[in-house]
Amino acid sequence: MLALFQWCYQTALGEGIRESTWLFPVFEAFHLIGLGVTAGAVLLVDLRLLGVGLSKQPVAQLASAAQPWLIGSLALMFSTGIPLFLSEATKCYYSFPFWVKMTSLLLALLFAFTIRRRVAAMALPRPLTERATALTSLALWFGVAWGGRWIGFS
Amino acid sequence: MSPLDFFGWLGDSDWSVALHESQYAYSIIESIHVWAMAVFFGTVVMFDLRLIGWTLRKVPASEVVTRLLPWTKGAFAVMVITGTLLFFAIPLRSYQNIFFRTKMLLLLVAGLNVWLFHSRIYPKLVAGDVDGVRPAAARAAGALSLTLWICIIFAGRMIAYNWFDCDRQPQLAIINFLTSCFPTDEGP
């Protein structure tokens, strides 16, 4: 595993970002903007599942409205996050927040595109199911955001 | 007392030093600032995209405002509180930082945009007077807001970098002018 991270570290893209003054901050800024849009798309549905936010609208409708923005913002997150990772891959390997982030991310994505998607499409879900789904989703994305911010502090 | 003296004095106060040198407090406050930003910007994005007409077309814009605005406002309050604390931890450097200044200026413009929107366009949307609001005006308001907030996040992220800081000389005269920097030593 460490060898893989070391290989990532020495890629041309990783090295280019390390050598540039501007690239890392610019990728970071776009990563942050992507985070905001992802949060918006996630919150729209999760707040509704909790019975707040746009609570007059059917969940399925909100979920389908949010879906393209969720996928689009995740694409922005990946296309900026992967270069950031390449530039400091070996540091990430030893970073506890990095592993928290990656674990939460994997679980959050799995959850969003399986269980949460099904609950949002249900005709008559039980309120308890809706709430539990929203809280799980929010907790997992919070883990991603927590890990992400704290990679930078270590 | 000049602003430079004032922020220098503020930075020497016990609380400011304690916050600046704390192992966790500063990082935790900064994290809360980022998470509040995600809630704030997330709800703003959804509303602006609705104004532009790119999402939630079936939901009236006024409903999107009334339902999401409490979250936007709450998150904004958290951002102001945490942002003030972050400034308080490093006052003089932040005051002189070119990105901080850009961010504050853009925040003023964004505030003006919010005020204009809520006084001119929003009342018509609520009254169901959709014909009274030219689609182009609503779209422009959404696009302007989105652009401003993206620039504010960008500037905010850059505050952390010291490329144009006063203690890094030589800088271009225009940079020193824009950052109220009066270098005493021109460097080697």
Major sheet description of chain A: none
- Which two protein chains have the largest interface (Cβ within 8 Å of the partner's Cβ), and how many residues from each? A-B, 35 and 33 residues
The whole-number mean of residue pLDDT values of chain A reads 93
Backbone CA Rg of chain A = 17 Å
> What structural class do helix, strand and pairing data of chain B support?
mainly alpha
- Residue ranges of chain B: pLDDT <50 for 5 or more in a row? none
Strand content of chain A: under 5%
Strand content of chain B: under 5%
> What is the percent of helical residues of chain A?
over 70%
Strand-helix topology:
The complex is a heterodimer of chains A (154) and B (188).
Chain A: H1 2-9, H2 12-19, H3 23-49, H4 59-87, H5 89-93, H6 96-113, H7 115-121, H8 127-151
Helix pairs in contact in A: 2-4, 3-4, 3-8, 6-7, 6-8, 7-8
Chain B: H1 3-12, H2 14-21, H3 25-52, H4 61-89, H5 91-96, H6 98-126, H7 135-158, H8 173-178
Key features of this structure:
heterodimer, A: 154 residues, mainly alpha, 82% helix, B: mainly alpha, 8 helices
Briefly characterize the structure.
The complex is a heterodimer of chains A (154) and B (188). With 154 residues, chain A is mainly α. Chain A has eight helices and no strands.
